[in-house]
Amino acid sequence: MDTDDIEWRVSPGLTDYPEALAEMEERAAAIRSGDRRECIWLLEHPPLYTAGTSADPRELLSADRFPVYTAGRGGRYTYHGPGQRIVYVMLDLSRRGRDVRHFVHSLEGWTIASLADLGVAARRAEGRIGIWTDDGDAEAKIGAIGVRIRRWVSFHGFALNVAPDLAHFDGIVPCGIAEYPVTSLARLGKTADMGAVDTAIRDRFADFLKALESPPING
């Protein structure tokens, strides 16, 4: 496992979504050809909705509220906006097992471990995608995962709700799950700023790579 040759990039302000998609596409191709290093890209977007490959148009409840983009990643509709940390993960999986399910499982573990360092006990939920925690008496979603793999290079990644406007999620059925609310670090009373969130994410990266590069338990 070598983390030194992986670029970490943090973009200030709000990054235009089509610009980010184009950059990810270009970087993934360059990683595959060996011309560029692998990359972890941390950023925020302006308010928008994205449609994954399984998006159901009936789950877009307010089509005129924010721009809607076709993302090309797996999953359904998601919201991105200020106060949400987006982590785009561009890695060469041909060097790391070529197991998409294990990659997603390892991403979930990375997200959960990062949240633990921020004082949030998060978890997977059987039969439900995303990262979940307790918000009072309710179970609520605090993180979303959506990836795309092309020629064994990953892009897209995961999103953590730090302090977004949670009302903005009302324009969609987030990830197709209407029965449970969405929460954030701020709503849970955690005062971590984006810098602290980034530190937790980076501190847990080596553990993520170790898990990713280890064979899954079921072989």
What characteristics describe this protein?
BirA Bifunctional Protein, domain 2; 219 residues; 3-stranded mixed β-sheet; alpha+beta; 7-stranded mixed β-sheet; globular
Provide structural commentary.
The chain is an alpha+beta fold and 219 residues long. It has one domain: BirA Bifunctional Protein, domain 2, CATH 3.30.930.10. The chain is 24% helix and 27% strand. The chain is built from 4 helices and 10 strands. A hairpin with a 2-residue loop joins strand 9 and strand 10 (153-161).
The first-to-last residue Cα distance is: 20 Å
Overall geometric form: globular
Helical content (DSSP H or I, runs of 4+):
10-25%
In CATH, the architecture is 2-Layer Sandwich
Chain-averaged pLDDT: 94
Number of domains: 1
Short description:
The chain is α+β, with helices and mostly antiparallel strands and 219 residues long. It contains four helices and ten strands.
Write the layout of secondary structure elements.
Blueprint (H helix, E strand, L loop, with lengths): L6 E4 L6 H17 L5 E5 L4 E4 L16 E3 L6 E4 L3 E7 L9 H18 L5 E3 L2 E8 L2 E13 L2 E9 L32 H10 L1 H8 L7
Parallel strand pairs: 1-2, 3-4
Antiparallel strand pairs: 2-6, 3-5, 6-10, 7-8, 8-9, 9-10
